[in-house]
């Protein structure tokens, strides 16, 4: 494995960390409705627990309401119960075959709690990126120890990996700031 391979591998893994962070951010509620909020809800479907998206169609009815259309007639009550019992604090209401899930307005206190959650997620993403930097630097040191690379190459690669790390951490900070702005917008 060469230094270029180590750097490319580290960059790929750091990018994956950022994508995972973006995915976790979609689950944090803002003032607007987002079907991704219901990704964590699981419904009892003939004895097995399935994600809500596998038993119903999720749509946005308006900026503050998610529509849930079950694929089977008898699933409406189970879906409604699963949403109500989730820790999301949502109160679904049935209208015939459609279940409306209105997003309650968030209090200032709840918004502040959510910004703390976002900052915590961001910090976890930064830690993952820094761990990848450490792993990459250790792999380069091993190459130098095995006489497959020079110390100058090691120094250059460490600077390169640090620049990559700084760029990724800046991206995480930008995502955190953007999400905080979304949350605090009334």
TrEMBL record:
Taken from the UniProt entry, a GO cellular component term is: cytosol
Q: What family is this?
A: Belongs to the RRF family.
Whose protein is this, by species? Hydrogenophaga intermedia
Is Protein biosynthesis found in the keyword set?
A: yes
Q: Which domain of life is it from?
A: Bacteria
- Could you tell me which CDD domains the record lists for this protein? RRF
The subcellular location is: Cytoplasm
One Pfam family for this entry, by name? RRF
Question: Is Cytoplasm among the key words of this record?
Answer: yes
Its name, as the record gives it, is: Ribosome-recycling factor
């Amino acid at each position: 494995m060469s230094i270029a391979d180590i750097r490319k591998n580290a960059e790929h893994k750091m990018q994956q960390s950022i994508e995972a962070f973006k995915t976790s951010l979609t689950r944090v509620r803002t003032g607007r409705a987002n079907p991704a909020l219901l990704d964590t809800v699981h419904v009892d479907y003939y004895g097995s627990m399935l994600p809500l998206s596998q038993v119903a169609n999720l749509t946005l009815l308006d900026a503050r309401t998610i529509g849930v259309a079950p694929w089977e007639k008898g699933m409406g009550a189970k879906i409604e119960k699963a949403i109500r019992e989730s820790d999301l604090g949502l109160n679904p209401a049935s209208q015939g075959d459609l279940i409306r899930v209105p997003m309650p307005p968030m209090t200032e206190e709840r918004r502040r709690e959510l910004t703390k959650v976002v900052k915590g997620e961001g910090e976890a993403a930064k830690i993952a990126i820094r761990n990848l930097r450490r792993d990459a630097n250790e792999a380069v040191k091993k190459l130098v120890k095995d006489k497959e690379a020079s110390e100058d190459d090691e120094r250059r690669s460490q600077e390169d990996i640090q620049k990559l790390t700084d760029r990724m951490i800046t991206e995480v900070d930008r995502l955190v700031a953007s999400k905080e702005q979304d949350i605090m917008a009334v």
